[in-house]
Design brief:
13% strand, 369 residues, alpha+beta
Length: 369
Amino acid sequence: MVLAIIAVQIGLALPARAQEPADTNRSISDILPLFGKNHCEEIKNPADQLFCGDPSLNSVATKLNSAIQQRLNRIPNRRLAIEENAEWIRDRNSSCGIFGRQNVPTRDIKPVRDCLLKETEERIEILDDPNFDCLATNTAAGALICADPVLANAKMELNEHVLTLIAKLKEDEARDAFAEFERWSRERDRKCNLAGKENVPLQELSPSEGCLADYFTRKLAEVAAAKGDPKRVFGRHQVSPSPDADAVDLCVAQIHSTNSCDDFLSVSRVSQINREVAEQNATVVATVEMLVLSPFAACSPIASNCTGTCWDVKSGTPKSVPGSRDGFAVAHRLRIEKSFAFQKTDNGGWRCNSTALQPVEVGVAISGP
């Protein structure tokens, strides 16, 4: 499943086809030898169209897929790796002169193709670098961890133990366990005051180092106590100790799991805005940020069930446009604000009563370059 997502993103498989086939461009067909054979005229994304029709790009994409697979085999937070790959695709396209779905002028096809080839070959080389996972981090916590050998070793040790545990699970259980592991990281960043601080200088983040060290110590002890049983670590927590951002994060994960959203979206951040807590009930207003991993229509069951609304892609607002066939491309960012309802359980925890992301109070969609 993960590879299928990546294949769509980098042109290894035919990407999502245009809902209305584009007119065949004979000039492009003459330039790209595989254009007609692979029916590349049906592809809407211009970068994917070039990967589809050019033999060199087709070949290097296969090598890239292998390099990505090797990376996925060595890390447990695979969804974060796919998110980073989506960001790289967006930046690669922009640096090579591809912006959104604007067609590449015929005169520019060759230089754009050469740029894509160079960028992809360089990407393959750095994916093989054992330090790449640190070099590629785009979070404040990741930067701190990679700058401290003790923290970096603790993260590596935890990753190895988690991979060993998840390998014992069935496919669906393993997918949910990977998602839960990624939620650990978001919870860690909130508790260590590192969420949303990607642009803060490293020296100003040093007070959070002790919190990160405590996190690794606690999680390593939890994994060791499981004595090799993954079900003593993953899939146990259906209630939260408090109605807060952590509880909302778990609630969103449950909604996404029910609607099979992980094929299309990753949750990148959950932030609490406000909350009202009574003796038995609570309401938490939170912001949920998501990143598009695989294209989907802006007004579709995926959009409604996984983001809570249909969207007007052009304005970036949660609004259905009758008859629109617009869709979200890879690396689109979506942010919603929503009230989540919770009920106190007999054991003192809090269970999410929100079974869907609808209705969304506020929303914004932000495209990449």
